[in-house]
Amino acid sequence: MTFELGRQARILYLAPNPPSPRMGGGSLRMHHMVRYLGERFDLDLVAPVGEGVEEAENLLGKFCSEMDFVTPSPGSVLRRVFRVSPYVKDPALATAVRRRMETKAYAAVQVEKPAMLPYLPYGLRIPIVLDTWAYGLAGPLRALRHEAGFLTRARNLLQVIRFGMFDAFCWPPTSCILVVSEQDRIRCQRARPERRVLVVPNGIDCAAIKPKVSVPESPPVILFTGDMGFAPNVDAAILLASRLFPEIRRVHPDAELHLVGRNPDPRLRCLSRSSSGITVTGAVEDMVPYLHAATVYVAPHFTGAGTRTKLLEAMAAGVAIVTTSIGIEGIDASHDQEVVIANDIPSLVAAVLRLCGNPHTRISLGTAARRLTEKRYDWRRCLAPLDILYAGLLSKKAGSC
Prior knowledge:
15 helices
């Protein structure tokens, strides 16, 4: 669908970090969002300078009319310690956004994550589209319940309070809130019945990920991927390495565990040094060879929220997957059809061992998972709701709800 408004409409896109496809699921979502919107409108991208900025500039330059990566102001300890908001508002970025709003005739602004809401000028009279990634307090609350230790729990409790206050009192009027799943839509609509809410799922580039064709038999390779500095991924990786993998090795002494992804937490490095069979790779150029080499992909998530792009990546690669209800949240996959779902440690271990010993079941699960991603989760299909959304907002010059 191509709008008649076409290049006459100028959109401001505010991102919390450079939309590089290698910097995690949120950055990957933004990368495809910018490409999609940039094909339809004059799109100006504003984000702070950060890791992946050169790649974002190279890959997205032809989709953006202007790109402004702002060097953050020197950090202020007082500003961070005594803030009420869960988010730090950088003065340099705030100035860049304000100047653009004053000098450009934008038809709408899309804001990625609530963290960028404080940068919007007060009383803005153009449509505001907020993309939430993971709506509400589900992630912080799960972290609060999961973490041990007084200081850690106190820090998480403070974050829950800050997020709750910000969500309740600091959101501006919006024309539409984007969420990644039907579960998030229900949460958002229940909390904000007066707001328009639209599901725009996370997706995957199925053409870029070919399904695996061979089935590794021995030794079994257990795989987990993601940003290994992101707290929910660290929690899952530590659980997998310290609680699940030793039980798997009782049955398969030569089994290997590969933890693949950028920014590995020091605790994961320590586990790899002290435990046999565990490899922590750090950042890799291409994830697909690791997916194709895996016997089973295991994502034992009990913290975090939102839809995990790494699960879609593993599904597109045709890998047999064991995960939890939280891990598969937002993805319309069924237990024992496209994935295996287990919600406690004994069940997770049993599921992995069952798949390690049954190549036919692995093939069946992987084939069904690949078919589901092709049918439901290719990026073009996932982002298509934006066409109708922006056509309505811009043609009617819709204000906030």
